[in-house]
Design brief:
Layout: E1 2-6, H1 13-20, H2 24-32, H3 38-45, H4 61-73, E2 77-81, H5 86-101, E3 105-109, H6 122-132, E4 136-140, H7 147-155, E5 159-163, E6 176-179, H8 195-210, H9 216-229, H10 236-249, H11 255-263, H12 274-291, H13 295-302, H14 306-340, E7 349-352, H15 361-372, E8 376-382, E9 385-391, H16 398-403, E10 409-414, E11 418-424, H17 428-442, H18 445-448, E12 450-454, E13 456-457, H19 465-472, E14 486-500, E15 504-511, E16 514-520, H20 523-529, E17 536-544, E18 550-559, H21 570-575
Helix pairs in contact: 1-2, 1-3, 4-8, 5-8, 5-9, 5-13, 6-7, 8-9, 9-10, 9-12, 11-13, 11-14, 12-13, 12-14, 13-14, 14-15
Bound molecules: manganese (II) ion (MN).
Manganese (II) ion (MN) binds next to loops.
């Protein structure tokens, strides 16, 4: 069942609107995003690289830079130890580029998702020591909980720098220089940097100490990809990195990035949107590391030959298509089981299959979590172990809820919305029962109800070009700054809408002089609701059209309230008055 609501207009909106010279709806949305003053509004609407914080504010960053620069000068080998996702790969690319500029013998190492698993494990460290014989290991996107992995490297006489953005455990690794804005005693003003944001800072610190110029733009391009792909909040400094990085991508000169954007359908010379990055660019970069090693994704950032860069980008597209096919199969098999049992029943979905590819469990889980509006845990098998990924829904803190079942896990980590874990395969059935009853007891029925929430009442005739212009400056959208959803109590199709692909619908809406092109992915039901000029109430988002101007994306619709053509429902009428 779906509950529909429109959030009330914040009281302070009128004041902020007056102070910043902004239309009331824009001011209301800014208030919801934590903006209080005219200056903050200006900073939010015009994110500028001059607002980036000084890298030296990060605890440990100067010590790390000094260690790296002196190792470079002595010709000692440095291994940049990364991760196989976009955040990890873009962090490695930036840091390795800076170290190479500093004259370092810098080698990139990306663990293999299936063979090594995530992070700086002792076994992986031993492999790095044997294969590369480094004097220094610098991690990105991992290491903050790797007490044993760090100890293993230290025993071999290797210096270790841990740069990570994950939650800090009870202990930080002994004997390592740690750079993590979340660590105790770090006064850095922004805590939500992704790993590639931290690598960006360290790269600048290395350049500063070694005394060579490093183009901020060339670092922002990879940094913005990792920041958007890693689903960190696009607020504060991350918003600057994302916005300035997307702009810089329009002028990408590195052949690899240019080829990747081309493969992703981004027109040459134009800036991709955050959605382009999240849905087209990032999946291609991730595809390599899901099925095999992520080396190919890293190679793309380092390739200098345009012909070879194109071939790598094409290969990433092929792997992405392969990944999609595997993921569709896993998703539909898991869905088949849920349906065969007559629906999800319990407050969590837990399924496993020996044939499921472990590289796609997380994406399949997030798809099912969205469809069934429940947390989902999917497992594959590796010998006598069940290896799983979980994804959650708003309001269910997955890591915390699962902690009560931690005795089942051999390995377990993650955060509110995503976890990974390993159990003994023979205990899977027992775990599944325990998880079902625990979640059903812990998660309220209200949380399992899908809420179709609009941020604001905005009748179509109030969508002026001035307002649209300001709303487009709310981009880039993502975590922490979702594209706003508006409610319009009454509108109707103008003419007959046309089908758009298999599920979509495209046409024009009009009401009292307010008219907009629209598209929707709820095509069939929407077409029936609005047939014959019937009035409908809609939840919609506004987005830029490829051809210029703006359009409404209809998220959901229902018949307009009867006998009150155009008048908002009582709850909304109250909401519209500040
Ligand atoms: Mn990360």
């Amino acid at each position: 069942m779906t509950r529909r609501t429109t959030a009330p207009l914040p009281q302070a909106a009128a004041e902020l609107g007056a102070a910043a010279g902004l239309p009331l709806p824009a001011a209301a949305l800014l208030i919801r995003r934590g903006i209080r003053s005219g200056d903050e509004a200006k900073e939010f609407l015009s994110p500028d690289p001059s607002r980036l914080h000084d890298p030296s504010l990060l605890k440990g960053v100067e010590e790390a830079a000094s260690l790296l620069v002196s190792a470079s000068a002595r010709g000692n080998r440095i291994v940049v130890f990364g991760d196989y996702d976009v955040d990890g790969v873009t962090a490695v690319a930036q840091l390795r580029a800076a170290l190479t500029r500093a004259g370092a013998d810098a080698v990139a190492f990306l663990p293999h998702r299936l063979k090594d698993g995530y992070g700086l494990k002792p076994a992986t460290v031993r492999r790095v020591l044997a294969e590369h014989r480094p004097a220094v290991i610098v991690t990105v996107d991992c290491g903050i909980t790797a007490l044993e992995g760090v100890a293993c490297a230290r025993e071999a006489g290797v210096d270790v720098i841990v740069t990570d953005h994950h939650l800090v455990g009870e202990q930080i690794p002994a004997g390592a220089v740690v750079v993590n804005p979340r660590q105790p005693g770090c006064a850095y003003p922004y805590k939500d940097l992704a790993a590639c944001g931290i690598a960006f800072k360290l790269a600048l610190a290395v350049a500063g100490r070694a005394g060579f110029p490093l183009s901020v733009e060339s670092l922002l391009r990879p940094a913005c990809l990792g920041t958007i792909a890693d689903l960190v909040p696009l607020t504060g400094e991350n918003r600057v990195i994302a916005a300035a990085g997307l702009r810089a991508l329009a002028g990408a000169r590195a052949p690899g990035i240019a080829a990747l954007l081309r493969e992703s359908g981004v027109r040459a010379g134009t800036a991709p949107s955050a959605d382009d990055v999240a849905y087209r660019v990032a999946p291609r970069l991730n595809a390599a590391g899901r099925i095999d090693t992520a080396e190919l994704a890293l190679a793309l950032f380092e390739e200098r030959d345009p012909g070879r860069a194109s071939r790598v980008a094409e290969e990433l597209s092929r792997r992405n298509a392969e990944r999609q096919a595997i993921e569709r199969r896993v998703t539909s098999e898991a869905r088949g089981r849920v349906e065969a049992a007559g629906g999800p029943g319990a407050a969590v979905i837990v399924e496993a299959d020996p044939a499921w590819h472990r590289g796609v469990l997380g994406i399949a889980a997030s798809r099912l979590a969205r469809d069934y509006h429940r947390p989902v845990l999917l497992f594959g098998f590796d010998g006598d172990r069940a290896v799983g990924s979980g994804r959650s829904i708003p309001g269910v803190r997955l890591h915390e809820t699962l902690r009560a079942l931690s005795t089942f896990f051999l390995e377990f980590g993650g955060h509110d919305q995503a976890v990974g874990g390993t159990l003994r395969a023979e205990r899977f059935a027992e775990f599944r029962e325990a998880a079902r009853s625990h979640f059903t007891a812990q998660v309220s029925d209200a949380t399992l109800e899908r809420v179709d929430l609009a941020e604001l009442e905005l009748p179509l005739e109030e969508v002026t070009p001035e307002l649209a212009e300001v709303l487009l400056r709310f981009e880039p959208h993502g975590m922490g700054n979702p594209r706003p959803v508006f409610h319009c109590g009454s509108t109707a199709f103008e003419g007959t809408p046309q089908p758009l692909g298999e599920r979509g619908l495209r046409g024009r809406l009009s009401r009292r002089g307010g008219a907009l092109p629209f598209l929707s992915w709820a095509g069939e039901s929407l077409e029936v609701l609005g047939r014959g000029g019937r009035e409908i109430a809609i939840h919609y988002r506004l987005q830029r059209r490829r051809s210029g101007g703006i359009e409404a994306e209809i998220v959901s619709a229902r018949p307009a309230a009867e006998g009150s053509a155009g008048a908002p429902e009582p709850a909304l009428a109250a909401a519209a008055t500040p």
